[in-house]
Amino acid sequence: MVNKIVFVGNHEYGYNILDHLLSNGIKISHIVSLNEEQVETSNLSGHHSFLAISKKYSIPIYFPKTFSLKDKLDTDFFIDNKFDLMIVAGWQRLIPSEVLNTLNIFGLGLHGSSDFLPKGRGRSPVNWSIIEGKKQFILHLFILKPDADDGDILDFFKFDINDWDNCRTLYYKISVVANKLLLKNIPKIFEKNFEQITQKGDPTYYPKRTPKDGLINWNCTSKEIYNFVRAITKPYPGAFTYNKKNKIFIWTAQPFDSKITYPDAKYGEVVEKFTSGDFLVQCSSDLLLVTEYEGIVSVGDTLGV
Questions:
Q1: Which of 58, 106, 115, 216 has the smallest number of CB atoms closer than 10 Å to its CB?
Q2: Are residues 202 and 219 in the same domain?
């Protein structure tokens, strides 16, 4: 008997996971993803089209009627296909109970946070963990339930968040670790040789982030602003500030120095600009070097709202 697995995803890191599973012999029956029109109307960051991998491996791809999968046509799709296992990676919506109940085994989710679940459930855990200056990330493989990230845990893997990571490199790490967890545990699930760990303790939840949350507060240290910038750099909407009425996006920056001082400078003031275009900004106690940005700044400009 062939086990039927459906893969649900629309994010770049989900694409990498799917490609790895397929190249390592895991058979996928169907892909569920979004078309370009749905991506635009949903205002998603980090989307990656799954059409190429669908064609490469001759896997049918289903574009749901709704992102929420709550339309009757979407439920009927899952009922008709009678999938055994669902793998969800990079799908920014909860899977409704009407869909989960069609599965012969269950759905698998991947959720990471800087602490063990139930701490750190919810939205944007990669971004929040970097913003908060956390030093570790724990990726959990868990059984999907209709609510957010509250299912029994099957396995987990702990790894570093280092000072050079940004949201993209942390997703690289998540992809690598997710591949290990899935390749290890999928055979165990079909062999019914797995254990379930119930989450214990009081849960905490990360709130949703939107593009407007990328506004930089210059009354912070350069390290805090560095964490903020690297947490929401590409493929996310990015950290931004204003030069008078002009919006400036800052994609890459780093702490510069705490001994070199500009005593008369205000928070957010551009105190130096180099021939390369890189510039220094006064923060609350030290200097930030901005090395990749969009917009026009000059020495003496004060950045902010």
A1: 58
A2: no
In the listed set 189, 206, 223, which residue is the last one of a domain according to the structure? 206
Instruction: Say whether pTM exceeds 0.85.
Output: yes
Same domain, 40 and 184: yes
Nearest to 157 by CA among 184, 132, 130, 137: 137
Sequential pLDDT tens for the chain (305 residues)? 579 999 999 988 899 999 999 999 999 999 999 988 888 787 777 788 999 999 999 999 999 999 999 999 999 999 999 999 999 998 989 999 999 999 999 999 999 999 999 999 999 999 999 999 999 999 999 999 999 999 999 999 999 999 999 999 999 999 999 999 999 999 999 999 999 999 999 999 999 899 999 999 999 999 999 999 999 999 899 999 999 889 999 999 999 999 999 999 999 999 999 999 999 999 999 999 999 999 999 999 999 97
Q: What domain range is 287 assigned to?
A: 211-294
Which CATH number does the domain housing residue 281 bear? Answer: 3.10.25.10
| H or E stretch at 250 | strand 246-257
Structural domain count of the chain? 2
